[in-house]
Amino acid sequence: MPYETARPRVLGPRELLRALGSEPPAAGRGFPRLTGLDRRAFETVASRNWPGAQQVLPGLSRAANHSALWLGVAAGIAATGSPRARRAAVRGLSSLALASATVNTLGKRAVRRPRPVRDGVPLVRQLNRQPVTTSFPSGHAASAAAFATGVALESKRWGAVVAPIAASVAFSRVYTGVHFPSDVLAGAALGAGAAFAVRGLVPTRDMLPPPGRPLVDAPPLPGGQGLVMVVNSGAGTPDAVRGLADALPLAEIVECEGAELETELEKAAGRAQALGVCGGDGSVNAAAAVALRHGLPLAVLPGGTLNHFAYDLGIEHPRDLFQSVRDGDAVAVDVGRFRSGRTEGIFLNTFSLGVYPELVRERERWSKRVGGRLADVVGAVHVLRRDHPLDARLDGKQRALWLLFAGNCTYARMGPVAARRIDLADGLLDVRAVHGGRLPSLRLLGAALAGPLTRSPFHAAVRSTRLVVEGLAPGTPLAFDGEITTTSGGELVVDKRHEALTVYRPSAL
Q1: Is residue 235 within 8 Å of residue 277, measured between CB atoms?
Q2: How far is 126 from 46, CA to CA, in rounded Å?
């Protein structure tokens, strides 16, 4: 009996995937209407002509592989030198790391959705290397949203810069045909959630209690009239000074260097309604001493390398100071003080005995030979090789100490020497000690890993209003706000002047 040979039927890509069983029910059967909308949206993007996108989006999508794009953007943000920018870069990368880990360990394993079929995507748009992982959710979109959201939570200005880049990366995943729109939306939502989760663990600065309370009255100086700003020109701050001249044209600016600073500050105090200083923490310390003697409010313009006091006060940019001077917004802050025979002084940040003063001396000695960063390392090696802890009586007990640290107000970060303060008027000294013995480097490391108010065989930390150290040998070095001096021997007393100094600071951060 004659028979007919059946003509072979060519299966389309989608039919082939279904025949092979590669498409799970969750991808198309559970929510058929939603899936249909998702596919139609994908096909609309694929079929449309997007002017200029062909030259930008595929390359941008490739640049975001392995988060290389975001590492470069973070480095560029941090390189601006602003503390807020550096925090934004770190927060963005931390959020990205959490989002990426969540997508790769949970997201793509929970919903094993195949990649879209690229029939309608022009070949010129398609990536040279197609992803082999499952489609839902988009890891690129998650990383982009996490980084952009993390940056924006710390700095709205930098967030506005990063957001268009992140949105372009997310859209490029649909444009190049490697993700459905719902993959991208889910990834973006997951990334943003990761950024908020990081903020829950590590609050942004604007979530913390504002430093430097209580508010006090200070003279408003429209145009800067009555402000005399003494600038330590050795700090290298021409941009800050130019900004001061533009924002406060009636302010008087006095530039000086090194040994002239204290003399110029005294002269300025005699004719000023408010005394200003532009320089590092050592310069600010000198200006604070003069302002206290003359009963003047202090205006601090960050101009040094670290600027701990200004940053803890909330002045991270010159405009923060300019607005507060114009409006007369100010706060009262505590001042630490120390006395040892004929040696006395104040500190706004930290006071220390032991390893740290010697480290500062060694760093200064080596900095001219090998440069600043390397001098820190060389100085630390030289100091820690010496087996000579400080002998003194602390709280009536004879002790051997590698480090005795007193902070003006409580520091928030863990470790023997912490990094920042939330309240600059809490009336307390943050006292930390690293006990003596062999292997100082291991003892200091162990103290750094301990909590801020813990006790251990190596480390102790307490909060107090007064500290008395007896039995110090004459000439024992001590450090305060980055400056070095020596004791006269005998009893050393460290205490506080509560809310003694009025400092200009913006009323809202």
Answers
A1: no
A2: 10
More confident residue, 166 or 14: 166
* Cβ–Cβ under 8 Å, residues 248 and 323: no
DSSP 352-364: EEEHHHHHHHHHH
Reported as half-sphere exposure (CB side, CA atoms, 13 A), residue 359 has a value of 20
What's the Cα-to-Cα distance from 114 to each of 34, 136, 137, 183, rounded to whole Å? 16, 8, 11, 11
Are the CB atoms for 118 and 126 separated by under 8 Å?
yes
Of 240, 309, 314, 262, the C-alpha closest to 281 is 309
The rounded percent of the chain whose pLDDT value lies above 90 is 26
Residue 507: beta bridge partners? none
Region 263-276 average pLDDT: 93
Q: Check: CB of residue 285 under 8 Å from CB of residue 306.
A: no
Q: When comparing pLDDT for 367 and 474, which is higher?
A: 474
Rounded distance between C-alpha atoms, residue 349 and residue 379, angstroms: 22
Number of residues that make up the chain: 509
Instruction: Give the model's confidence band at 150: pLDDT under 50 very low, under 70 low, under 90 confident, else very high.
Output: very high
What are the structure tokens assigned to 359, written together?
């480290």
Q: Cα separation of 239 and 111, whole Å?
A: 53
pLDDT at 283 over 70: yes
Name every residue whose Cβ is closer than 8 Å to that of residue 28 and which is 6 or more positions away in sequence: 35
Burial class (CB in 10 A: 0-12, 13-18, 19+), 97: middle
In this structure, are residues 338 and 492 in contact, taking their beta carbons and an 8 Å threshold? Answer: yes
Average pLDDT, the chain: 77
The band of 76, judged by pLDDT with boundaries at 50, 70 and 90, is: very high
Q: What is the pLDDT of residue 408?
A: 93
Nearest to 448 by CA among 421, 419, 482: 419
Distance from C-alpha of 334 to C-alpha of 292, rounded to nearest angstrom: 11
Give the residue from 138, 142, 136 showing the smallest Cα distance to 114: 136
Pairwise CA distance, residues 497 & 428, whole Å: 10
Q: Which residue stretches of 103-210 are H helix?
A: 108-110, 139-154, 156-175, 181-201
- What is the CB neighbour count within 10 angstroms for residue 19? 10
Q: Do residues 468 and 491 touch, judged by C-beta distance below 8 A?
A: yes
In this prediction, residues 351-357 reach a mean pLDDT of 77
Query: What's the rounded Cα separation, in Å, for the pair 153 and 89?
Result: 11
For residues 455 and 421, the model is more confident at 421
* Distance of alpha carbon 477 from alpha carbon 352, whole angstroms: 9
